[in-house]
Amino acid sequence: MAERDFIAQRLAPLATSAAARGLADDAAVWTPPLGRDLVFTHDVLACGVHYVPGDPPSDIAWKLLAVNLSDLAAMGAAPCGVLLGLGLSAAEDDDWRAAFSAGLGRALVHFGVALWGGDTVTGLAAAVLGLTAVGSVEPETALSRSGAKVGDDLWVSGSIGDAGLGLAIALGHAPHDAALLKRFRRPEPRLALGRALIGTASAAMDVSDGLLIDADRLAQASGVALAIDLGAVPVSDAAAARCPTLAERIALTTAGDDYELLFTAPPGVDVAALSGRTPVTRIGAVTAGRGVRLANQGVDVTPARLGWEH
To answer: Pick from 47, 119, 251, 283: CA 20 to 30 A from residue 14's CA?
Structure first.
């Protein structure tokens, strides 16, 4: 299928926003909400790096959108629209593109966000998929990594480590578990929680490369230290059953692709009341110093490798 046919038949039907102009022009034209700050993010998924070549195309589309929306969630922003950039190889045939487009359409509806436009190219050795997401927040309210204060509590949403176990399943290195595999392939950005934390969280970011390495990034940005209690880190029943040893539990804190929110808040704040249906857990505190420390029953068990780095 030629590029123009792919765009006309698969992508144009998804671009229903007036800003997209039917994908018939060189660029989108969008009027932002009056009096709002705009938030921009861009993430790339590379075949063989961020997803497994055999992953369902519909799940790849979902993940491409979700990981970008997770960045908006970490800023407390509401998503407005996205621009898509698809660099494809010969492996992404017409059937793959049809399934990808269908999955993207479902994800756009699920998250309530508009496709505004983008570009496609073929002939790459392996697929590289990019997406730019635009969101908005009330002026000067966007969350930041740099506001944590000594004495604040440290919180995380959901559970940690499931996606890392799901990757092992996708690679054929572990027994099948549908729930764990779904956590790797179809993350759920915590958009509602991010918006609810505005005015309460002193610092926030999403957990994409591993709890510890992202905690270290938040600590460095804020000029503080984060003390994390391994026993308090929330793990699912499936993860707990697969990781009974201390070394395995520590490894869960270095696994990536969780796309949960890590944030700090003043002590005494009823964060659970703000979080609605999203579970949140206090896992530590902000202390003087710099960096991150993981402890198990008071013993420092911080690993040398904190998480994923390219």
So the answer is: 47
Q: Is 90 exceeded by the pLDDT of residue 47? A: yes
Grouping H, G, I as helix, E, B as strand and the rest as coil, residue 38 is strand
Residue with tokens 């402890």: 295
Rounded Cα gap, residues 176 and 179, in angstroms: 9
Q: Output b/e per residue, 7-27; b: 16+ Cβ within 10 A.
A: beebbbebbebebbbebeeee
For the cut 90, the answer to whether the pLDDT of residue 1 exceeds it is: no
Residue 236 lies in a domain: yes
Sequence-separated (6 or more) residues with CB below 8 Å from residue 197 = 76, 143, 204, 261, 263, 265, 274
Which CATH number characterizes residue 70's domain? 3.30.1330.10
> Does residue 133 sit in the same domain as residue 159?
no
Contact 47, 127 (CB under 8 A): yes
Domain boundary among 137, 165, 190: 137
User: Taking the complete model, does pTM exceed 0.90, yes or no?
Assistant: yes
